[in-house]
Amino acid sequence: MGRTYEQGDMIIRLPGDESLAWDQVTVTELPDDDLIVRAFEGDGTVNLVCCAAITVPESVLDELRACGGEGVIAPRTAPENTVTLIEHDGVCVWTVPTASDPPVTSDPPVTSDPPVTSDSPVTSGAPDTPAEPALMDGIRTVAFRRPSGTRPAALIGSGRTPGLPTRVRAAIFRLPSVAAAALVRTVETAIVHPGLITITDRNPLSWRRFRIGDVTPPATRGVVRVLLLVHGTFVTTVGGFGVLESNDDAKAFLHSMLGRYDAVLGFTHRTLSESPKQNADELRQVLGSLAAEVRDRFGGATLAVDVVTHSRGALVARSFVELTAPVNGVGIEKLVMVAGPNAGTLLAAPTNWRTLLDLWTALAADVARQWAGPIAEKVTRESLSLVAACAKAVIAQAVDAQNLPGLASMRPSDNPFLDELNAPGGGAVRPPYRTVVTDFEPDQIVGPLNPVGDALERLADDVVDPLMGTANDLVVNTDSMSEIDGSSLPTASVAIVPSSTGTQHLSYFVDTVSLRMIEGELRR
């Protein structure tokens, strides 16, 4: 027994019997000012089909847990090209039906209960018939008990402050109707347009494709000094570094960099369907073109480039330095790698991709709450579209290391790319390598945790730490960030962000301490 609710094209089935206080459970459409709703206004490559908020009082939640049931959230129609995102107090889970699953259908409404519409809150639903459809693999999304295992879905409905209602948000997205194996490349090609981006201290939405006129005449004759930012996975330059406009400390950092360099540029590249080595080849081409333009415009001047990378961007920059031929007129002076998986990360192993996708979404939500307005909406749409495509393909088991070379390049073993990159005795002339690292330890954070921080604490304790078995920033193990060619960098080349800051993998560029450390490494 239980209750079934309908919200637009969404079916929501909750467990329990008629003794539960169903009139206290509400299912409503997400408000117009919700970030996901705003972000997915209008048509795009990936579109929002419907969304809902499910609110359950703590007293009812206790009864649901006691009955040991699990709820179901699923699309009513056309599930073959949809994917569902469930968020519960910062814990996120991506789910899709499998090919063998029957569609979830609603039960006939009971005359005493009015039909549920998307226009009004729902306080009661129609009772389920005794014969429930089989729960879909990957559709069991609202767990009111803590089953064994380390999937983030097991955390839903647990670990809450007593007395507070639980609120679950669900969103169903429609993806392009292409074969699952081609889905990621299709979505990434539509969203990510590789090339150099000019970064300014104006709204990141105004950042544009680089033009030679964006370079300030060099203060030092014959040398144009450039800061190049290389983003990580699931984002573009705006998505990776737009956070530099999110708070006063981040703005101060960017303003300082704009005053220090003749140009601050970002390198936008595809992080899923292309490998870091492919990205590096493309970077070599665009920097070669830039060097030629600089020579023509500034009387034979050359480029002196400092590089700051985030996450997977470290592998792109190192591939450019170590695995491609030198570019005439381009000198890499410094390379500062922030949270780079230089020796890989266990989350990038194909068997852990689902956990990575769920976790990355939760971390992105932690950072997105610090933004507002159109920039947050653009970044949310781009990144969630990319993650949704990955989730659909991964859960459908339609992709592997060959289809997702961008992710596979970060796995710590059985990885020819990292074997080549970290082979000792390479002949390439390298700039000084420096890293910025941290270990996310919730019990060391100074100050109270917000609800999202509480979710990250549960993810760290119940998912990431047991999986990795060593210090990490929730995505990359800390030792890997500074392991080059099988050996750790010297202590003087490693800046450690204290765990007390609460810095996690996607927040280095919004946190005051880590920003100061990045700037300090550039000024050394």
Describe the protein in words.
- With 524 residues, the chain is α+β, with helices and mostly antiparallel strands.
- The protein has 2 domains: 3-103 and 139-174, no CATH class; 181-349 and 397-523, Alpha/Beta hydrolase fold, catalytic domain (Rossmann fold).
- The chain is 30% helix and 21% strand.
- The protein has 14 helices and 20 strands.
- The protein has an 8-stranded mixed β-sheet with strand order 12-11-14-13-15-16-17-20, sandwiched between helices. A 5-stranded antiparallel β-sheet has the order 8-1-2-5-9, with no helix packed on it.
- A hairpin with a 2-residue loop joins strand 18 (483-484) and strand 19 (487-488).
- Helix 6 (276-297) crosses helix 7 (313-323).
- The longest helix has 22 residues, at 276-297.
- It starts with a strand and ends with a helix.
- Mean pLDDT is 83; it is low at 99-164.
- Residues 227-422 form the DUF7379 domain.
- It comes from Gordonia rhizosphera NBRC 16068.
- Residues 97-133 are annotated as: Disordered.
- It holds the Pfam family DUF7379.
- Residues 114-123 have a biased composition (Polar residues).
Compute the CA-based radius of gyration. Answer: 24 Å
Can you count the beta strands?
20
CATH fold group of the largest domain: Rossmann fold
- The CATH architecture assignment of the largest domain turns out to be 3-Layer(aba) Sandwich
Give the overall shape, derived from the CA principal axes: globular
Give the full name of the CATH homologous superfamily of the largest domain. Answer: Alpha/Beta hydrolase fold, catalytic domain
Helical coverage, percent range: 25-40%
Helix tally equals 14
**What is the topology, as strand order, of the major beta sheet?**
12-11-14-13-15-16-17-20
Average predicted local confidence, pLDDT: 83
What are the segments in which pLDDT stays under 50 over at least 5 consecutive residues? 99-164
CATH class category of the largest domain: Alpha Beta
State the domain count.
Answer: 2
Report how far apart the termini are.
66 Å
Estimate what percentage of residues fall within beta strands: 15-25%
Helix vs. strand class: alpha+beta
- Largest sheet report: 8 strands, mixed
